[in-house]
């Protein structure tokens, strides 16, 4: 039997068992020792991964009868490697068209991914469902596209209320706003900066994207073929501004959300927005509130003894703009992650006389071009939005617990191949790691969003001694013109940059809404791996992003470009379904933290 026939035969048995509501029959098709079912909305109306037969049985017990999934088919051609047969798949249920991915070992399921891809009758108005534009024929009192657009801008938020308000207009808020626009969900994006893209433009001058262009495409619109592999912050800012205009998003610039509270009786939010230009205040009443200010919250600035006596300049990395003007000066950067390295390199390039990085704990370092090897179909991905969607599905096809295990041998190979590079860094006093379990950079991003660096030049400066490193020590005291460390050493300083990251986004929720809501929602980001800065219990998926929370009608949108594109689809579908009164009964598994205060009935409002 060929690989494609093996996949098709398994899907036939699987589909038959589902239609019979035969949980035992379904479970017989899965491996006994290890199996995974990752579901994004299709069965659970949640983002959830079952990691054993018992968990799959629990999920099916609650969801099987109401899902009515059928017409399971292979989508393309299967492949086989290392004893694993795999293929993209498709299926449907009464309300949706769905996509997925299947991996078989020894004829049984090792991993299956099921995703709700498209609501029937409520498709994205793109591709074959694109709007007609100009209506042919004679129309009395016809309005032009521009007149309709201006009328919508005048009315939405004033005489007509939006269904959704997104707080934060960076790449995450913009990606979600585009999805909702194409789904016909009235939405306003509230952004405190003057223009779309300013979240990038306002960062330090030498900032570049750290992921390649083929990973960073936006919904419905790829970067042009002339776009650089890694773009500067200002290029990205310009692209975001153009994207907002081309997608026709309702984007309120120079506007700041001052407060938000949920009216339980009316099942809507009361959101106060201030126009920073004229001071006017507008009250919005959306049904759903989405926070897209980034998964991190406020700047984390440590308090050191004597900081108030420092005679130079102290600034958090989020407020540092350029190394220009620090020629001949002595600079201390506290932190050893991405921003710390980039700022150190910028200061050195601009002629600072001494640049010192303070590294409290070890850092994962990988060359940017080492970790981001282009996929075989890179040209296809850059040229086609459908190829991007296939790429995304392939990324969904590896549950995080499996990914952790697969990353370890990859980083063992990197450590061996780049041994000379790492030996030179270590000799310079820089502390290295590949994660507590050797799983490397991407898992560190998922777990704690910090503690790593994609090398674009700063590591060579460290290895050669051009950037000094103070490792394994902490700041004991800041003096008028220097920094004193716990080992008794002292470094002169004209500038101190705190590249010390950000607090969890729950702090922002506490300020904007209330401490009670923040406590109810809990930590945002992380997998519950019980590693540094990622406390357990294990969650299986990223905590509290893109899915229902323990508070009605509140959502979190965030992530790098790739995740913003991928996950905006599923959050937008959840919001569209609720707007259209499509039942969305949410499966809350016993094996993970369950928001007891939230019922499925409330979620379907």
TrEMBL record:
For this entry, the protein name equals indole-3-pyruvate monooxygenase
Main EC class of this protein? oxidoreductase
In terms of Pfam families, this protein maps to: Pyr_redox_3
Which ranges does the record mark as transmembrane?
none
Q: Which organism is it from?
A: Riccia fluitans
Query: Catalytic activity annotated for this protein?
Result: indole-3-pyruvate + NADPH + O2 + H(+) = (indol-3-yl)acetate + CO2 + NADP(+) + H2O
Q: Where is the signal peptide?
A: none
- The EC number on file is 1.14.13.168
Q: Which family does it belong to?
A: Belongs to the FMO family.
GO function term, MF aspect, one: indole-3-pyruvate monooxygenase activity
Record keywords: Oxidoreductase
